[in-house]
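Weekend entry, working from home. Most of the wet-lab plans are on hold until the incubator is repaired, so I used the time to fold the two sequences that have been sitting in the queue since the last round of cloning. Logging both here for the record. First:
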Amino acid sequence: MTRVAFALREVGYRIGEAVILDDVTLEISYGRVLALVGPNGAGKSSLLGILTGDTRATTGQVELDGRSLHEWRAGELARTRAVLAQSNQVAFSFTAYQVVEMGRSPWIGTEHAEDDETVITRSLEQADVAQLASRAFPSLSGGEGARVSLARVLAQDTAVMMLDEPTAALDLRHQEEVLRVARTLATQGRAVIVVLHDLSLAGAYADDVAMIHQGRLIAVGAPAAILTEERIRAVYQTDVRVIADPDTGAPVVLPVRHR
């Protein structure tokens, strides 16, 4: 039986009179990759913020492992869920290794601190940044910095991983590698939540796709069931063609372009 990580019930979020999220009910399970998709401004990152505990829902209930999210202490949360934000700035000239090492801070003083070096080395390799370990973080390109930030999140070594647009600054090869890492984490029994704009990547690597539109969860399920031409056309207001990947059968979303 699949164990539920997050349970959201009728979650809403407002800023003043603006409705950012409305009546979101969703379960997110361990051992699966959930892709949050939707147009710009749909509420994806706001929903991720509620899941991280950084934003408090205006209405409804959010539970992690059967407990109200806001009953969790900060240290407990840091050892249970790791978050890759869209922006990853570092104020000082730390090396890439030192940035990744920061991911181990929740485990200071615990028996897991013994694993720091092993976990850091593994995380650098998973994110393909071992060769950048001695470089100053500010000297890295946008894509290199994004991968080092991913390695920091991997080094946190938590049961829940949340990645907000992790492929945005990456080249084709590293986009694929990041999503392969997400899949590997899920096969290890972790819950992986990833915000994606690339619907084909969502179709290729996610177990479940949750589509958000105008603050509402309009559909959730297997990629092939959610990523249909009709639904994408209605939500994104653009014509697309959805075909099956000839190798995997996963849905590939192509914009319809007219010469």
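Second, folded right after the first finished:
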Amino acid sequence: MSELPFLQIRDLHVSVADKPILKGVNLTINAGEKHALMGPNGSGKSTLSYALMGHPNYKITSGEVLFEGQNLLEMGPDERARKGLFLAFQYPMVIPGVKVFQFLRTMLKARRGADVSVKEFRALLKEKMAMLEMKEEFVRRYLNEGFSGGEKKRHEILQMALLEPSLALLDETDSGLDIDALRIVCAGINAVAAKNPNMGVLIITHYQRMLNYITPDFVHILFEGRIVKSGGKELALELEAQGYEAIENEFRQPAQV
């Protein structure tokens, strides 16, 4: 394992359309660790993931982010991805006219910075799809067009399996999934993590249910732009039992006068 943490976030402040969303986030993720970030709507969970990937609408006003010891904030989104940062979107985009096979091969080429022969790519794709229990005809479809919620999310995990990132950000991957789809998607995430034991994972979710399948090493609660509480997997169970109202009562900031 690397001696440096994959990700170090120090006093991160982020605004969207001049509105402060993150107000001093501190978080460290080491190699092989699984972290869960939980919190109510509007707390800033997705803002954190988009800011880390370099979305231009998310302005970092202060703070520091180091990725494997390098200043992440000086990198463009494409460089961050090539360095090994991966984001699975809550709402994957539909791209008509682009086949899944074509998209995945282009994606892998960009990650490696070198061409990938069709023969090599087919063999690699077959291996990863078998690991995720996906049928081969899936890659002949157009990207997310007509996909169910479960298919969209499984495609995100297939991307992760091919890219083998250093750090995977999973932004509400459980959103819109029924019980069976959630189980299948989580099994895929666990399979990728088992294949790449040094990969760090940040699971962003509202609910405990995803953590029934993926056991986190650490759970953090984000509230009003700050991580207000951290603990082990039992913290998610406590949150499930008490709800976010208990967190609001404990940590809500007094109104400014």
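Plan for Monday: verify the second prediction. The CA atoms of residues 61 and 190 lie 35 Å apart.
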